[in-house]
Amino acid sequence: MRYIRPLSIEDAVGLLAGASGTSAILAGGSDLLVRMKGGFVEPDLIVDIKAIEGLSEIRETADGFSIGATVPCAVLGESSVLKKAWPGVVEAAKLIGSKQVQGRCTITGNLCNASPAADSVPALVAAGAKAVVAGPSGRRTIPVGAVPIGPGKTSLTKGEIIEAILLDSQAPRSGDAYLRFIPRTEMDIAVVSAGVNLTLDEHGVITAARVALGAAAPTVLLVEEAAEALIGRKLDEAALERLAKVCAGACRPIDDKRGTIEFRRKVAGVLARRATTTAYARAGGK
Amino acid sequence: MAGVAVSTTINGDHVEYLCQPDETLLDVLRDRLGLTGAKEGCGTGDCGACSIILDNRLVCSCLVLGAEAEGRIVETVEGMAHGDQLHPLQQKFLEHAALQCGICTPGFLIAAKDLLAKNPDPTEEEIRFGLAGNLCRCTGYDKIVRAVQDAATVMKKGV
Q: What positions does the domain FAD-binding PCMH-type occupy (chain A) (predicted)?
């Protein structure tokens, strides 16, 4: 096994593209090292991307924010501007693991680990976040939701690295929120989760909505019907009931020891409803 | 197989070592450098017994490769006391009997040190939350929380 810490994204891409055997990208390592320890992966090459300039920063851009691939989630929680603009994304990122894990884990890693239960992913999808992918044929920007294609599988091809996650500036009168259900009070894997992002007009009528569910299907689910249930309305009881119903209906969850299909469907609706209520209040709706 | 040459700072001392590319920092500390304070509990980042501070961040050393420590600043429980003078947290853990078997204690001490460095006057809830990444199967946590509260009081007074 080789461990290499390149100084540029081009070198990192070159190393991964030219590698034979199994290679792994190391940022926070909170998934990779556990998988290595468990014998689930034995990389021939580890490319540590933490020495690449710019990847460890949250930058404010003309369009919003660029969160570098190696920024630990703890740093997201310490960014007052990011918390103000995207409180739902930050609260989702802050739910991952203990304080020790927070000091290492990244939202890019959470995305690329491609767990259906990844906490930050539904919040990012609801926020319309994009991933900047660097690869052997240059850079491309894709929606975050296009990265995971199944449990543990991503659409990234050989040599590709996500170098940053982009979030737009939050539109006026907008708010986002994320909630998950776990059997404990802290530090567990989502049984089911919901991320919501809403924009309102001056009268509190919802003009744009994105509702994403986690741990409800093999990959994160963006529920279009949930948006339709909300857009053009204030957040009244009928809208919330309709939202909960379509979210429950959209789920294609697994049945396992942490939750039955029936339970996950029901809770998906409840969480979507509660996250929507919070997002609505954050957007200034009353 | 040739190792990875690493140059780093541990508890204020410049340290150089060779390690294997897949060797964790925990294994380097314990097996190569003789710093056996950090313990391996789970080895998967769940229990906090291997907690250290890396560039001012609390982390599990079992989830860090030894090679990653290059050029960084590592603090372990061995750096807490000054000679015979225990750190206030260590003293208060003793006074409050905040340990039984002791395996989790170095991790708790380091996590509590990190907590108090960032929040010198934590509430009980903040202490419990701040130490939630450290598992103890003996004490029931109450004595640990009281020791940290007492140490915070002492450290604020600068005694």
A: 1-172
